[in-house]
Each structure stands twice: as structure tokens, then as C-alpha cells.
Amino acid sequence: MSPQERVEIGELSVREHEAWLVLRERLWPEEPKEDLVSGMDVILDDPRRNAVFVARLHGSGGELVGFVEAALRDWAEGCRTRPVGYIEGWYVAPEHRRRGVGRRLVEAAEQWARSRGCTEMGSDAEIANTLSHRAHAALGYEEVERVVSFAKRLIP
Fold first, then answer.
1. For residue 17, which of 40, 39, 38, 35 has the smallest C-alpha distance?
2. Is 156 contained in some domain?
3. CB neighbour list of residue 73: distance below 8 Å, 6 or more residues apart
4. How far, in Å, CA of 140 to CA of 150, rounded?
5. What is the distance, to the nearest Å, from the Cα of residue 51 to the centroid of all Cα atoms in its chain?
6. How buried is residue 137: exposed, middle or buried, by Cβ count under 10 Å (0-12/13-18/19+)?
7. Residue 86 near residue 71, CB atoms below 8 Å
8. Does 154 reside within a domain?
9. Which pLDDT score, from 0 to 100, does residue 156 have?
10. Under the phi-then-psi rule, with left for phi > 0, alpha for psi from -120 to 50, and beta for the rest, what region is 61?
11. Could you tell me the residue range of the domain that residue 69 belongs to?
12. Is 52 domain-assigned?
């Protein structure tokens, strides 16, 4: 059985919320758990504008090995149309990478965006995350902009 046949891509189910949280913690380990949970609530509260697709491993009780969070945005850098589909988060467990799982997750997100009238899809990655840059490029995404963010704490 090929790796692609062993993994099923589908929409997140209610019983998978804890497993999704575990994967979100792996993607964003520096984020406090309560922030990750509140972000999940925001996504789940507006299913017309948000979707989560997961990769389930067959023969393991449906263990989640990846996810993609997609949203409709009013605009995105480098995109000309409105609304635009957007990849908000994308993660595949390291042992399941380079087997087409990430591609299939993104294709599910793109199809979801198309079904909502989008003709473009946007995404982003941290500037140092060259693995994500290469993965995006392999799926046909083009770099459109680089940004350096600044912050200053204002103490009253």
C-alpha cells in the first residue's frame, strides 16, 4: 500500500479537536496553549469563512498526522481578487512528509476556497522557515513579498 493510500484527507470532526490541538502545539510551540485553544474557537465559530482539513492515518484508529486551516480573507498580499482563500496554518508530522500528504491537504483547502468563489489562494511563512518556502513553491505558490515586522512596547 502506498503512503498516499494509507492517509485519508477530510474535514475535521468534533471528536478530533484534541488531536488537532496537539498538532497545532507542534506547529506553533511558542504559543501558549490557551491562545491556541482560543484560535480554534474562532475558527470553529465561523464555518462559512473557515475550514480545517486533516490527514488521518488508516490502521491507527484514525490518528491525525497533519492539518491545514483555511480561511476566506478580504485581501492578501500579491492577490488581486476578493475574497481570497488563505492557508492560515499547515502542518504534517515529520515522519509523514515528502509523501504527498501536505499536497493533498492544500488541495483540499484550495477546493474549499474555489467552492466559495475564490480564484486565488494566499499563504505565508516565517522568513527563516525555508522548508515551508520550498513546500509552497513545490505546490505552485510564488513568493510575492517579504516583510520585517517591528514592535515597541509603550509603557504608560
1. 40
2. no
3. 83, 84, 85, 86, 122
4. 30
5. 9
6. exposed
7. yes
8. no
9. 84
10. left
11. 3-138
12. yes
The whole-angstrom separation of Cα 46 and Cα 129 is: 29
Smallest CA-to-CA distance from 68 within 89, 85, 83 is with: 89
d(CA 20, CA 31): 15
What is the C-alpha separation between 69 and 38, in angstroms, rounded? 14
Q: What is the pLDDT of residue 5?
A: 55
In a domain, 147, yes or no: no
pLDDT for the residue numbered 141: 97
pLDDT at 61 (0 to 100): 78
> pLDDT tens, position by position, for the chain (156 residues)?
344 459 999 999 999 999 999 999 999 999 999 999 999 999 999 999 999 999 999 876 789 999 999 999 999 999 999 999 999 999 999 999 999 999 999 999 999 999 999 999 999 999 999 999 999 999 999 999 998 889 999 998
Q: Can you tell me the distance from the alpha carbon of 56 to that of 99, in angstroms, rounded to the nearest whole number?
A: 14
Single-letter code of the amino acid located at 61: G
Q: What is the CATH number of the domain that holds 38?
A: 3.40.630.30
Query: What total of structural domains would you count in the chain?
Result: 1
Grid-cell match 499536497, residue found = 103
Residue from 29, 35, 114, 24 nearest 69 by CA:
24
